[in-house]
Amino acid sequence: MNFEFSFKELPAVMCGPRVERRRVLVGGSAFWGTMDDDGRLRLDDGRVLDAEGATYLPPVNPSKIIAVHISYSSRSFETRNKARPTETPTYFTKPATALNGHKGQILKPADCKYLNYEGEYAVVISRTCRNVTPDEAWDCIEGFCPALDMGLQDFRDTDQGSMLRVKGADTLLPIGPGIVRGVNLFEQTLRTYVNGLVVQEAHIGEETIWGPHYVIADIARHITLLPGDVILMGTPCHSRSVDPGQVVECEITGLGRVSGTVTAIDAPRAAALGVGHAPTDSPEVRRVALGFDERVPDRFKDNLRQAKEATR
Amino acid sequence: MNFEFSFKELPAVMCGPRVERRRVLVGGSAFWGTMDDDGRLRLDDGRVLDAEGATYLPPVNPSKIIAVHISYSSRSFETRNKARPTETPTYFTKPATALNGHKGQILKPADCKYLNYEGEYAVVISRTCRNVTPDEAWDCIEGFCPALDMGLQDFRDTDQGSMLRVKGADTLLPIGPGIVRGVNLFEQTLRTYVNGLVVQEAHIGEETIWGPHYVIADIARHITLLPGDVILMGTPCHSRSVDPGQVVECEITGLGRVSGTVTAIDAPRAAALGVGHAPTDSPEVRRVALGFDERVPDRFKDNLRQAKEATR
Amino acid sequence: MNFEFSFKELPAVMCGPRVERRRVLVGGSAFWGTMDDDGRLRLDDGRVLDAEGATYLPPVNPSKIIAVHISYSSRSFETRNKARPTETPTYFTKPATALNGHKGQILKPADCKYLNYEGEYAVVISRTCRNVTPDEAWDCIEGFCPALDMGLQDFRDTDQGSMLRVKGADTLLPIGPGIVRGVNLFEQTLRTYVNGLVVQEAHIGEETIWGPHYVIADIARHITLLPGDVILMGTPCHSRSVDPGQVVECEITGLGRVSGTVTAIDAPRAAALGVGHAPTDSPEVRRVALGFDERVPDRFKDNLRQAKEATR
Amino acid sequence: MNFEFSFKELPAVMCGPRVERRRVLVGGSAFWGTMDDDGRLRLDDGRVLDAEGATYLPPVNPSKIIAVHISYSSRSFETRNKARPTETPTYFTKPATALNGHKGQILKPADCKYLNYEGEYAVVISRTCRNVTPDEAWDCIEGFCPALDMGLQDFRDTDQGSMLRVKGADTLLPIGPGIVRGVNLFEQTLRTYVNGLVVQEAHIGEETIWGPHYVIADIARHITLLPGDVILMGTPCHSRSVDPGQVVECEITGLGRVSGTVTAIDAPRAAALGVGHAPTDSPEVRRVALGFDERVPDRFKDNLRQAKEATR
Questions:
Q1: What is the pLDDT of residues B230-278, one digit of tens each?
Q2: Which residue among B46, B131, B224 places its CB closest to the CB of D46?
Q3: Banded pLDDT at A5 (limits 50, 70, 90)
Q4: D210: which of B70, C126, D34, D214 fits an S-S bond (Cβ 3.0–4.6 Å)?
């Protein structure tokens, strides 16, 4: 493990037993439930649901969502040709309107070409947190969720680095299916799938540059984190663009697997009036959207090509 | 019209054109849309949904829900044998966790016998509102929704009149499908259906004792109403009990029709330990749950009997 | 201790060390801090405040507030002439707009005579909670706060027992100064003061009829409690009326002391138009507002009389 | 006026009469009130406050805060040497924890040198808004507020353009004192003061590049704006750094004047452990923090120098 500030003993949030809580919509009302050992969802009111057929809501309700730009060595190597992208982590934000549940539709406007996936895990804050050390930060974590930090890279050329339009559009944050405690995150493997084929893979303990405790302590130097706030922990190499009809999934072993289906929508009405930065297909956009294939394992590229051919 | 403080000219919220906004879950994310003239739901992002097949969320997100006990002359006559139940309106509350969307499941615990329907309309507050007159109160209304103020009458004997357990359990407030502006409420008719048969009916203009403007001005004498807060406006005669499998609907002409299906769940675990007031089948419970049949039109009773026979 | 369902070992929320968190407004922004051993408030950002001079906000942000009618034997004896008011606890609600912070103004409208104090402690919910047993309920408690459940008894004759107007008006729930963990509630004493003189006093362990674990398990039989929700645990004997200028405080040893000053405001404008139930001075109102002096210790009555004389 | 998409007739939100609503804390509870013609704050409950001596809360409660990088020609000229910074506006975000009320403390950590003011006006969203045209966008505006978009420029070198740490720290968004309707924004003048001396000034109608209707329509192409959301509209030239003890104000004629006092706090504890990007005094940081004096009117620079000398 090469992440900053390793811990002395395993923090409580990563000690068993594993508990997974999910939130579902059953006919008009939201309900919380706990996954049982047989893969069924036991609602708190006693009803037992087939977890496969349930209608999922995001298991979080954050007042803010903060995302690490890069915290995986393979991603840093792909984009920067070095194991560490910057001396210290850097961040951007996503609005809460971007939240999406498991099995959601990930919207791709008709005038956009590059909707990139980024498989990640999310950290959910359990208590008000400001001015803590990394050691103390572990006590401020409610649990972890698989997540997809989707991005409309066609807007790479605007917003001067804030990526509001790239990362902030509605539906661009599938998260779930549940929130999990009691799993040692650093022993888990992250995998992103397109149409069932692996297109990203990383062992979290081996690749993580900055752990969640470090990131929380860093952000909370100046910003108060509130219960329910969400931090997205970055993606490994091979973030690439997907098209309508394709199913994207992020699995974190031990946590679960969240999926979304890319869905076409019309271009916005204001776009036809010339309002705002138009999606562009510039070299910089393509650089990020298409990535650096020479620094990425062949099997990810082969799988993505295969998945895309199957969709056509 | 015999409601208090009639208005000089039709308030803006009741003047056309009619606009109906609905909130739906599409694959993990919530979206707002507007109903078009052909009965389709046009989401703001341009997608058009079959309104019939959509998954509905409550179109409101209140910080509080206040309900009038009785504001229909037929209900007052049924329960009190007079056209006006009290000199002035009286109120109780429901927690926000009771909210349910159109086509929801209305939960009936296994140890309860009497889950009564009450077809109503809801008023949604548009702006912070305190110390207003009835005339001013019209400007604080965002719109109106059909609603069902369901009640577990088995708990009638507890809570000393607050009805927390009678009216406050999860799912006991189906509301929607949308929120509507631009309709003259006092020209509309309320109808409640069980399995498609009319079991309550009232012309709102003829039966209303206290209009929403009066009720808002009354409550806001001492309590600040916030944007999104919901007021339930009472039910006409013939609130009766329904059973699992039965479909209950409230239609307000001009506004729409909200439905819910009564669904059985287990008795709570704490009940088995003897915690809390047990559901009872006392004379007082039966008095309210079963109502006063002699003061109710025969067709409602006939229809309910027919609906119940069909379910068995 | 005679409360229901006593526990096997002291629940974690009542085990030390004691931690008290307060929320204050410093010049336009809200900040959380922790009380240190010297009675100073250390804000999370490192600033140290004189706790005495701080501007307090309520330390809670609930989606619902539920209150026990009676859970102290002395209150039951005073009002019912028996040690237990009912077989099982009963509840009512207060809207969140009633919240008030430490050192708040408790508003008394000009047309009301009887604003009664009720010293209580509040329980704050830490996690989503539904269908739990009393044993499990302890894990759903974030902490405890002193509170004053004030009531405008002039509205006793309306609302048919829900007490919406009695208990729900703006400012009628002073709570704080902080939220406390790590204190054994059942070894504490509750005291209410008017102008510094004790007017209510009860040893919580000796007088409590139903503990918070029982009450949570009871409510959560049918109603989902959410993180931040507040439960008010009832008051001991000698709830009485106070007047503008008087300072009311509730102290729970180990938790702290919350205060409020009764402050006169005008009668609402709608009242002048005859809207709504007018405050009344009926026998029932006086029965509750003035209480049963013969069943209350003399020192409370003497102190209250002395406090009132000093204000005139 | 050179802002995009001018309107045909004055939008309702800019037509009189002027209404200003403020939110204040009075002894532990929040209250809304309306400013009267004599400069007093009339609370909704009838109390009248001296507006000068009140304790202000932010008059907004947004789920997201989006800010335009540059929308004033003088700022574009200062930083880019041209009248228009980019073809279309670009945006970043601030978390809601950055909100501050009128007369707040603006926190400057001990390890930071450059806390820059930016006088702005904010637009508050009144209704759910997605996929609208600029013409339609006017109907989605609740009102306008003076605001200060403060920034810790010491963090300019990190976060790759998102400015999370520059703009997102606690207290960096003083806003208020009220929210105003009924004023023609394009006839107003923005002025920023340090210790009472003007350091920024711009006629909004003459300098605005993109109006709020354009900006709303632009953002709402892909992101749903919710009631209460806040958009900050950019600052004119001469954003500069201020020091502890200095009072910063932004006045928008017709809207009001919001102030904050720069207040020193300790460096965060995690900084001492080497966690996170340290504040830097790099050429890029100084470039932004100190600005381009040669493209700024002398009187602003003279006034700032004078104000700073008075503080020492």
A1: 999 999 999 999 999 999 999 999 999 999 999 999 999 999 999 999 9
A2: B131
A3: low
A4: D214
Distance from A67 to chain D by nearest Cα, in Å?
10
Q: Is B264 on the interface with A (CB under 8 A)?
A: no
**Helix or strand holding residue D80 (H, E):** helix D73-80
Closest-approach residue (CA) in chain C for D170: C29
Shortest Cα distance, chain A CAs vs residue D169, angstroms? 5
| Sign of the alpha-carbon torsion through C242, C243, C244, C246 | negative
Q: Report pLDDT for D200.
A: 98
CB A205 within 8 A of CB D263: no
| Alpha-helical segments (H) within chain A | 73-80, 134-137, 164-168, 204-207, 212-219, 269-272, 283-290, 298-311
The answer to whether the CB atoms of B102 and A265 lie below 8 A apart is no
Residue C127: CB partners within 8 Å, gap ≥ 6?
C139, C140, C227
Q: Which residues pair with D23 in a beta bridge?
A: D32
- N residues, chain C: 312
Partners of residue D271 in chain C, C-beta under 8 Å: none
CA distance linking residue A38 with residue A52, whole number of Å: 12
Q: Which residue has the tokens 């909004």?
A: D204
* Chain A residues with CB-CB distance to C219 below 8 A: none
Confidence of residue A94 (pLDDT cuts 50, 70, 90): very high
Token pair for B86: 């009290």
Q: Look at residue D297 and give its three-state secondary structure.
A: coil
Q: Does A16 touch chain D (CB under 8 A)?
A: no
Chain C hits for B87, CB-CB cut-off 8 Å, are 277
- Note whether D160 contacts A130, CB cutoff 8 Å: no
Report yes or no: D261 at the C interface, CB cutoff 8 Å.
yes
Q: Show residues of chain C in contact with B211, CB under 8 Å.
A: none
Pair B95, B67: CB distance under 8 Å: no
Question: Residue A177: is the preceding peptide bond cis (ω within 30°)?
Answer: yes
- CB spacing of B32 vs D131 below 8 angstroms: no
Q: What pTM was computed for the model? A: 0.97
Of B44, B45, B131, the CB nearest to D45: B131
Rounded Cα gap, residues B129 and B114, in angstroms: 36
Residue A298 CB contacts under 8 Å (≥ 6 apart), including other chains:
none
Q: CA C62 to CA B95: how far, in whole Å?
A: 11
Closest alpha carbon to C180 in C11, C19, C15: C19
**Cis? peptide before D177, omega within 30° of 0:** yes
* Residues A205, C125: Cα–Cα separation, whole Å: 35
Q: Is A39 left (phi over 0), alpha (psi -120 to 50) or beta?
A: left
Terminal alpha carbon distance of chain B: 41
Provide φ and ψ at D306, rounded to 5°: -60, -45
Question: Is A166:A159 a contact under the CB 8 Å cutoff?
Answer: yes
User: Tokens in use for C90?
Assistant: 């009963």
The residue with greater pLDDT, A26 or A5, is: A26
Interface touch A29/B170, C-beta < 8 Å = yes
* Stretch B117-131: mean pLDDT: 98
> How long, in residues, is chain B?
312
Instruction: Please tell me the distance from the alpha carbon of residue C292 to that of residue C290, in angstroms, as a whole number.
Output: 7
Torsion D130-D135-D137-D139 (CA) sign: negative
In C, minimum Cα distance to B267 occurs at C221
Query: From CA B261, how far away is CA D280, in angstroms rounded?
Result: 62
Contacts of D26 in chain C (CB under 8 A): 104-105
Place of tokens 């302590």: A217
- pLDDT tens, B187-231? 999 999 999 999 999 999 999 999 999 999 999 999 999 999 999
Q: Which amino acid is at C223?
A: I
| CA–CA gap between residue D174 and residue D232 (Å, rounded) | 11
